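Shipment paperwork, digital attachment
Item: protein structure file
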Amino acid sequence: MPPAGLSTTDPPGERRPPARDELIVARATPPGAAALAVVRIDGAGARDVVQRLFVPAGRRSPIDTPRTMIFGHWRDPLSGDRLDEGLTVFFPAPHSYTGNDLAEFHGHGGAVAPRRLVEAVLACGARLAEPGEFTRRAFLNGRLDLAQAEAVADLISAQTDAAARIAQRQLVGELSSRIHALRDDLLTLAAEIEARIDFPEEDLDPADQSRLAAAFAAALVDLRTLAETRRRGRLLREGARVALVGRPNAGKSSLLNALVRMERAIVTPHPGTTRDIIECTLDLHGIPVTLVDTAGLRESPDPIEQLGIERTRREIERADLVLRVVDLTESPAPAIDAELSDGGRPADITVFNKLDLAPDHAPPCQGDACSVSATRGDGMADLERLLVARLDAAGAGETESGFAVNLRQGELLDRARAALHAARAAFDQGLSGEFVMVDLREALDALSAILGLEVGDAVLDRIFSRFCIGK
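Attachment content:
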């Protein structure tokens, strides 16, 4: 007998997409000790499961009063034993999250009670839901487009308020509306080009030529503006990686502790204390930042310290920003540009540390340099502002569009832009409309793929695999 999800007619290694109304169940809240847990049921048969398992405490039932929480208890479908008590709500199709009949059991949390509810639903003929299957059904049933579905995962995984705001805007359809408008503009443009193909004897007058050329130009600007938010999207979703580098005992660990406002790294007066990479995360004005404390850069015969220095160089390559930490008490301040060059890049910000010990040697805070006392806190507000400014310049700040496309969307926007450039070039050269339409159709296909209007099961599998089970 073939495994679930496969048929004997499927080609080897290929998986048949699950039916969009098959009865599924999953716990929608995280496992572990908690006051409440939610078990979600979706598909054909959800209504029957509610009637079979739930016993309302009063006269009203969830089926008779949909979208209303009803108190009662659940019983085992085989033995009739009481499983738990709580609230049940039923959402009849098509007015549910998925577009199917959908029910939720809100019971006690913990490891046992939710598991017993899931097992009771399985005994009624359901199967366990796959990651993201509820949202995938919402997309397939037209409740969400693909850009909105991706925003659901972004909202769940948001690490900062800024990331959550962006995800919320895209969830309600602001990005989708922008893509739809752009796609409509290209469809209008394509209709005019097609009309010229059908009536080749009619010459294009100069006014129409200018108007169509302006339409091409405006669409290209819109595509570029949206595509340029991709880096911001990556920084908001994945966070920025900021490496603290410098010579031993420059105060890198003290600086990390000051930025995260806790004793995260061990600080001693002995050079070379940090041998391994130490990471801390913080919300820096809405940007998720991972600070990386690294081993000091210097020549060392110690093989263990050499391993730490090699890891430092790898972190320099990975980092979105590199903070060079310089000890003001060393006179003259040592140059570490050569060591940084070994890591493949220069520093983005220079931090002159130990201002409290050498106030007369501190350069003014200007450009990409700042003087601080990590132990006393002097200059730390200036450093944070400088960090935010550099991250904003790198694409993590608020943009006029308010969007932040993901990698998939950015690649499709690049594809649409390249195709539209080619279409415009063919148009400007006066080539036949057939040549213009080849590239214009490719641009339209790319925009359609962002919304999920034309997308295959393999792409959907990849997108929804990053969702949690139960969403």
